[in-house]
Write a structure and sequence with these properties.
51% helix, 2 domains, single chain, mainly alpha, CBS-domain, elongated, Rhomboid-like fold, two-stranded antiparallel sheet, 437 residues
Length: 437
């Protein structure tokens, strides 16, 4: 957003004699203090994680302050408070010097006009809210995934969206230049009526959609771009900028003039924006990385834990079934019939329900009287994601594995959790390698 040359109100050259007048001193960094402070903070954090912290400490920093959609799958009361602060703190971390440089460049370019308009305090609130909006969309798209989102590009995208509401077109800049007043905030419809804004938004969204579809716009870098966080941030800034804008849109005397003069366009803006996507939010979030982070299969779990399954027959008494559960220290036992085919599953809950209904005398009943007969089964090709969804929605903790109609294993909720932990540890190692260069 280039500055207009100094002119008189009539548009001619500066008045005679003003050329030799002493000009006021111009600061070295002609940016608001809020933007300068943000850039310094981002640089200091990156310097600490890359130059000062050990590899294990840098890994801890990324996992503790990066945003993980996986955190929200499990009860919040059973974990620390990372779920509370990471939707904001992830925006302060960066995975490489190039990542930091690109985000810093566009933060300065789009953050400067926004902060000059709304002030530093509103900017801080805007940063927090837009970071959370980007994280929310990322979590919705990657729900339950062990990805780690870092980077300020969601906030930068929100600043781009906010700038579309007042800073595009020559009219707004001219009003500010000649009068010292901020240009009117355009309504969403008025902003979209500007050709510059329409073209900018179209190219911006097409680039992110192309990345989401896996098109190799930036080669290997495309796999690290969190396009979903960008979209969440941009929509937040474009749609909700009015909440943060102190300029009263309805009473601005230059609103009509801004609408009349909007046909002059700023050129050369769109192509550089595409470059900002190169080093967007680090982490294996892009479509090219989906295969690498695909959920583990049941087969991989069984290869680790084994395929032995404790079984009983349908005519065994509840007392004998209880002794079997206690002997093997398990919470469920599969009930099989002829040829090792599943006919039911008996759990601790079934045992408790029987005692509650019939007392101790109920222990003489056969298992077939209390077992669950409509058993959900999976096969070795099923994924952990599928099992986790089923266990959560149907509220059970054990799923027998069946191949060709015969029992060949069992997966518990503990197995699913352990598999998830291994995936998170793998992701942490990838982030560690990424940060280390």
């Amino acid at each position: 957003m280039d500055e207009l040359p100094p002119r008189s109100p009539e548009g001619g050259a500066p008045p005679e004699g003003e050329g030799n007048a002493e000009h006021p001193r111009v600061p070295v960094f002609n940016m608001p203090s809020g933007i300068l402070a943000s850039l310094v903070l981002l640089a200091v954090i990156y310097a600490a994680q890359s130059l000062i912290l050990s590899a294990s400490a840098a890994e801890w920093l990324a996992v503790t302050f990066g945003f993980l959609p996986l955190r929200y799958v499990y009860p919040l009361a059973e974990q620390g408070f990372e779920w509370l602060w990471t939707p904001v703190t992830y925006s302060l971390l960066h995975g490489s010097l190039e990542h930091l440089a690109f985000n810093g460049l566009w933060l300065a370019a789009f953050g400067t006009p926004v902060v000059r308009r709304i002030g530093n305090l509103r900017f801080v609130v805007f940063w927090i809210a837009s970071a959370a909006a980007g994280a929310a969309v990322h979590a919705a798209v990657n729900w339950g995934q062990p990805t780690i989102l870092i980077g300020a590009s969601g906030v930068v995208s929100a600043l781009m969206g906010a700038a579309c509401r007042f800073a595009f077109g020559s009219s707004g800049r001219a009003v500010s230049h000649y009068t010292g007043l901020q240009p009117a905030r355009l309504s969403i419809g008025e902003a979209l009526s500007l050709r510059t804004v329409r073209v900018f938004i179209i190219f911006w969204f097409l680039g992110n959609i192309a990345i989401a579809l896996g098109l190799p716009l930036f080669g290997d870098l495309a796999g690290t771009i969190a396009w979903d966080a960008h979209i969440g941030g941009f929509l937040f800034g474009f749609l909700l900028f009015g909440v943060f804008d102190p300029v009263p849109a309805d009473t601005d005397p230059f609103r009509y003039m801004a609408g009349i003069l909007h046909s002059s366009e700023i050129t050369g803006t769109i192509s550089p924006v595409a470059a900002a996507w190169r080093n967007a939010d680090a982490g294996p979030n892009g479509p090219n990385a989906k295969e690498e982070r695909m959920s583990a299969s049941v087969r991989s779990i069984l290869e680790v834990k084994g395929r032995d399954v404790v079984t009983i027959g349908p005519n065994v008494t509840l007392a004998e079934a209880a002794r079997t559960l206690d002997e093997h220290k398990i919470g469920a036992v599969v009930v099989v019939g002829m040829e090792n085919r599943i006919v039911g599953i008996f759990t601790e809950r079934d045992l408790v329900r029987s005692i509650a209904r019939s007392g101790a005398g109920g222990l003489d009943q056969p298992v077939s009287a209390m077992m669950t007969t409509n058993v959900y089964r999976c096969n070795e090709a099923s994924t952990v994601n599928e099992l986790m969804e089923v266990m959560s929605s149907r509220r059970f903790r054990h799923v027998p594995v069946e191949e060709n109609g015969r029992l060949c294993g069992i997966i518990s909720i503990g197995d699913v959790v352990k598999s998830r932990i291994r995936e998170v540890e793998t992701e942490a190692e990838q982030i560690k390698a990424y940060i280390a260069g």
